Amino acid sequence: TIYFGAFIHSISLSELEICDKGAIGVDSNGVIKFVQRDIELARVYDEHADWKDAEIVKVGGNGFFFPGFIDTHTHASQHANTGLFGKTTLLSWLSTYTYPMESSLSDLPKATTVYNNFVSRTLSHGTTTCAYYGTIHVPSTNLLADICLARGQRALVGRVCMNTDLSPEYYRDVSVEAATKDSKASIDYIRSIDPQGEIVLPIVTPRFAPSCTTECLTALGALAHEEKTHIQTHVSENKGEIDLVASMFPDSSSYTDVYETTGLLTSKTILAHAVHLTADEIALVKKRDAKIAHCPASNTAITSGCAPIRHFLDAGLTVGLGTDVSGGFSPSILEEVRQAIWTSRFVAMNTSDASKLSTEEALYLATRGGAAVVGLEKKVGGFEVGMEFDAQMIKLGDVKQGGDQEGVFEEGPVDIFGFESGDEKVQKWVYAGDDRNTVAVWVRGRLVHKTGRFTIA
Ligand code: GUN
Ligand code: FE
User: Fold this and answer.
1) Per the record, what is one GO cellular component (predicted)?
2) 453 within ligand 1 shell (Cβ under 6 A)
3) For residues 134 and 325, what is the distance between their CA atoms, to the nearest angstrom?
4) Taking Cα atoms as reference points, which of 258, 267, 323 lies closest to residue 297?
5) Ligand 1 centroid to 241 CA: how many Å?
6) Contact (Cβ atoms closer than 8 angstroms) between residue 125 and residue 150
7) Are strands 446-450 and 438-443 parallel, antiparallel or unpaired?
8) Ligand 2: centre distance to CA 291 (Å)
9) Does residue 73's CB lie within 6 angstroms of at least one atom of ligand 1?
10) What's the confidence (pLDDT) of residue 60?
């Protein structure tokens, strides 16, 4: 397939490439074979005569191809709670809303509905890769992996582990052995349905330090090491949580050190939130090359705080964005792009303008940054020869001659007037766009979502 028309992607943290007329050739395995710039369709075959029979997917005047978004942290199991957080903070939010909902997903028909809906929602917002938390239940967590594989969304799927009495008796691992055995069972299942790990990968998931004993954390660190899997957990999200960790782990020098001493702080570890890290903790994360999932909507909703992302980037940390549903209220990484930019402005109001993230930087975190967080930076996040084609077709709303007419709203919230530069289209999409602008989505060259506005030619 040759994808023809405008394409836009990050080429560095601060720079987008905006190509008004390009051609991206993708083979039947979904691998990008060529990228041509400033070219007419007829001339593509001058260099690539053997692509004469390729299918052509064109994006027209006000649209462009953009890499698929990477959601580096979200809880599929909390989707049905979206919007419910009231005035809680982390620990009261967990007991009020989260444990009861997650526990109810032992019911497989209910899990089927919730997981199918959430995968539909994230795909329709352009998310082509997602790092998911399931629940402690192996069958429903495995079902989530089945759904991602069938629907074609790249995913890391984790069976959640927790064995302390912070979680209620009805929703808790009964022993360290149970936590590791069930985690291993889920790892084995996910590897059995996708042996090459082309779409779905297992990820070891200790919920967060207060949910697990030192023995449990150590056993899960060993499991991840033996099985060579990724690891995901939460760190330093909320002040009350940090105090709790200090009282539960008196021998550790910090929250991050709990993960360090239990073998969980590795280059394949995704740490969500990291709102209140100390300078020593930032240095430790850097030393281990662990990754950060920034979840700004959640951090504001449950009043955790403003993570200093500009500072993390300056310190050389690898950062991506996460929706953290249902701490976060939106399945959209585009929303997190805006929220990351807003949060950086609140940090700037208390420090200096140097703390602000630019639109370009936030889009980098949503794509290339996220890809690096989940270990897929060579495969996805941009349009480069050798990468796989994970992309979204973006269309802004057409303005019909004569002004506003019926139907305009169905075409999305962003009007285009025909005089915008490529850069202005991006700004309009980021600040005024939503899922109505994402008219088609591909993973490895497979069409995984489309709306009524998608046309091939
Ligand atoms: N810390 C432990 N569990 C959770 C969770 O489900 N969501 C968030 N945001 N933080 C957590
Ligand atoms: Fe979370």
Assistant:
1) cytosol
2) no
3) 12
4) 323
5) 10
6) no
7) antiparallel
8) 14
9) no
10) 87
Q: Look-up: residue for tokens 């099985």?
A: 227
CATH 3.60.90.10 fits 69-373, yes or no: no
The matching CATH number, chosen from 2.30.40.10, 3.20.20.70, 1.10.472.10, 3.40.50.300, for 2-67+382-450 is 2.30.40.10
Q: Which two tokens stand for residue 264?
A: 């969980």
- Cβ 207 under 6 angstroms from ligand 1: yes
Supply the DSSP string of 146-209, one letter for each residue. Answer: HHHHHHT-EEEEE-EE--STTS-TTSS-SSHHHHHHHHHHHHHHHHHHSTT-SSEEEEEEE-BG
Report d(CA 415, CA 84) in Å as an integer: 32
**30 alpha carbon – ligand 2 mean position (Å):** 31
Q: Domain-by-domain residue ranges, the chain?
A: 2-67+382-450, 69-373
Helix (H) or strand (E) holding 122: helix 108-124
DSSP character for 31?
Answer: B
Stated as kind and residue range, the H or E segment containing 441 is strand 438-443
What is the per-residue pLDDT across 189-210, written as a single tens digit (0 to 9) for each? 999 999 999 999 999 999 999 9
What string of H, E and C letters represents the secondary structure of 264-285? CCCCCEEEEECCCCCHHHHHHH
Residues 173, 216: contact at Cβ < 8 Å?
Answer: yes
**Does residue 208's CB lie within 6 angstroms of at least one atom of ligand 1?**
yes
Check: pTM over 0.95? Answer yes or no. Answer: yes
Locate all alpha helices (DSSP H) within 239-392, ordered by sequence.
Answer: 239-248, 255-261, 279-288, 296-301, 309-314, 333-350, 359-364, 370-373
At CA 411, angle to CA 406 and CA 416, rounded to 5? 100
The number of beta carbons lying within 10 Å of the beta carbon of residue 95 is 14
Other C-beta atoms closer than 10 Å to the C-beta of 322 total 30
Which segments of the chain have a pLDDT < 70? 404-410
Mind listing the pLDDT tens digit for each residue in 98-141?
Answer: 999 999 999 999 999 999 999 999 999 999 999 999 999 999 99
Which ligand number lies closest to the CA of residue 78?
1
Residue 298 Cβ contacting ligand 1 at under 6 Å? yes
Distance from C-alpha of 384 to C-alpha of 9, rounded to nearest angstrom: 10
Residue 194's CB is within 10 A of a number of other CB atoms, namely: 17
456 vs 36: CA distance, rounded Å: 19
pLDDT for 411: 75
Any ligand 1 atom below 6 A from CB of 93: no
